[in-house]
Amino acid sequence: MIPYTKPKRDNPLERAFSFTESDLKQNMQGKLSDAQVARLRQEAYQTLYLVIGALAIIGFLALLSFRASAGELMLLLSCLILPAIFAFVFTVGTTEAALSARTVSKVSGLIHLAYGMMPYQPPLPADFKPVQRGVVLGYQAAYRLAIADREFRLDRDQYQALSESHAYYNVFFVPTLNKIVSV
After folding, report:
1. Are 134 and 155 in contact (CB under 8 A)?
2. Which of 104, 99, 101, 98 is nearest to 31 (CA)?
């Protein structure tokens, strides 16, 4: 795995979305840059390490709290290994599958921003129907961006960088992950 190092960013959008001018040029050609691939992989591995760390702590505390027989120990290990495998598949596996084509999609239009249960600003058109990617939980504390027929989750820095002007943008994203890579 190639380590990702943060390059110097010139403007707030580049800093918030972690891209450079050369990344943007490659995105305009429909391609992910090597730095973007490395960053997305690093994010996936960080999530996996957090999940495995939490499972290891749970397993260690469970072992300390009772004396386990060999059968119980195997049951405990299987109860911890299965979620670790699922975490691997849904973090690293999904990311690697999405990155294998090394392509990005583009959507253009007026951005609409929202936080939590608050409505979008500026208001969405009445006929807005976002492309659904399955169940999305936790909108109560989520920053969101709607553009054309797409809806994306943002972090606070991304939301603040975009909220400085409600304007027309080109948004480049990895479709399978529904993850914005540049604006």
Report:
1. no
2. 104
First to last CA, the chain: 26
- Answer yes or no: are the C-beta atoms of 27 and 104 closer than 8 Å: yes
Token pair recorded at residue 176: 């399978």
Pairing status of strand 112-115 against strand 168-174: unpaired
**Which residues, other chains included, contact 5 with Cβ-Cβ below 8 Å and sequence gap of 6+?**
none
Dihedral class, residue 148 (left if φ above 0, else alpha if ψ from -120 to 50, else beta): left
Name the amino acid, one letter, at 67: R
What global pTM score does this model have?
0.81
Please write the tens of the pLDDT for every residue from 51-100: 999 999 988 888 888 777 878 888 888 888 999 999 999 999 999 999 99
Long-range CB pairs of 69-74, under 8 A, 24+ apart, other chains included: none
